[in-house]
Structure formats: structure tokens, C-alpha cells
Specification:
- The protein folds into two domains: about 90 residues, Cyclin A, domain 1; about 80 residues, Cyclin A, domain 1 (Orthogonal Bundle), CATH 1.10.472.
- It is about 70% helix and about 0% strand.
- The chain contains ten helices and no strands.
- Helix 1 packs across helix 4 and helix 8 packs across helix 10.
- The chain is elongated and about 55 Å long.
């Protein structure tokens, strides 16, 4: 487990997560010590515990970010997470899109006013039931794009999509739906 733990420290540092996530990951890892894992499966389980800790602590990170940082495939992370959820009876809340906005605004080095505007858009979209059941990164990215547009901040769909690890099509789709449904002072 030592090699995996050393790699895990590097992953945490590379993804810039708070200490509380690392502590929660350790708690989850200790909960599964009774199960025996080897090699890549062990690493997949460990990355999945990290993802579960992020979800539990409201620290948005995508499967793709974890896959890129750890060298474990999305599929392995998802399978390992399913295993963890079943064995530990985990109930992982979806990410709050407002937390995703905060994370993406910081990652994209955008202003606080863009973040505030994006959160207003999300709040209005939530009131219109446009957020529930949607990818929180997708609706957050769309709200950021709308906020940038209303604040005259130039940024490409691609740059936002890359930061959110989603496609530009996802942003355009969420943006269109939100724009069509909201009294768009937010164009």
C-alpha cells in the first residue's frame, strides 16, 4: 500500500484539494481494509475512495481529472466507486453546481463578479427546475459562459469545457435550455 499512498499524496497535491479530503479518504480507506486488493485494482479502489471523499466534502473533481492525475481509467474509477458504494453503503450526494462554479472560476482565473453572476444564473435556473438531474459541471459551465457574456469577458466554450472536463456541446445544450427558459437578463 506504500507506493499507492505515496502516489496518492502526489495526486492530492496536483489536484489542489484541501486536507479535509485527504483525511476523509483515509477514513474511507480504513473502512475497506478488510477487503484484499492487489495492483491496479488497489489503486483504482484508492482513487475511488478519493473521489468519494471529494463528493462527501463538496470538493468538485471529475472522473477525468482523477484519471489523468492517477493513470487509472475512468471505467476503473467508476467500477471501483460502485464496489465501494455497495460494500460501504455510501450515499454520495451530487456536487452542488455552486461549488462547481467556485472551482471552475478559480481554475479559469475569472473574476469574483463572474462567479457571483454565474451563481445568480444557477439560482434562477434551479428555481425553474433546470438544474436537478443535470451534470453539475455542465450547468455550471453554461452559467459561467452566460455570466462571462453578460460581463463582457471573452472566453471560449472550449476553454470552459476543458476546465470542466466536458464537451462544448454539453455547455451549448445547457446554455440554450437555460437561456430559453429564463428571463434572460443574463444573455
Amino acid at each position: 500500500m506504500g507506493v499507492v499512498l505515496g502516489e496518492f499524496d502526489e495526486i492530492c497535491e496536483g489536484l489542489g484539494v484541501p486536507w479535509k479530503v485527504k483525511e476523509k479518504t483515509e477514513d474511507l480507506r480504513k473502512s475497506i481494509e478488510e477487503f484484499s486488493f492487489t495492483g491496479q485494482k488497489r489503486k483504482g479502489i484508492y482513487v475511488a475512495t478519493f473521489y468519494a471523499a471529494c463528493r462527501k466534502m463538496g470538493v468538485p473533481r471529475s472522473y477525468k481529472e482523477l484519471a489523468d492525475a492517477s493513470g487509472v481509467s475512468n471505467e476503473t474509477i467508476i467500477k471501483s466507486l460502485k464496489f465501494l458504494s455497495e460494500k460501504l453503503d455510501l450515499h454520495l450526494p451530487p456536487y452542488d453546481p455552486r461549488d462547481c462554479v467556485t472551482y471552475l472560476v478559480e481554475k479559469l482565473d475569472l473574476s469574483e463578479s463572474v462567479g457571483d453572476k454565474a451563481k445568480q444564473i444557477l439560482e434562477k435556473a434551479n428555481e425553474e427546475n433546470l438544474v436537478a438531474g443535470r451534470n453539475p459541471f455542465g450547468v455550471s459551465a453554461a452559467a459561467i459562459q452566460m455570466a462571462c457574456s453578460s460581463e463582457d469577458v471573452e472566453i471560449t466554450y472550449k476553454k470552459i469545457a476543458d476546465a470542466a472536463t466536458i464537451t462544448t456541446v454539453s455547455i451549448r445544450s445547457s446554455r440554450k435550455e437555460m437561456k430559453d427558459e429564463l428571463d434572460s437578463n443574463f444573455s
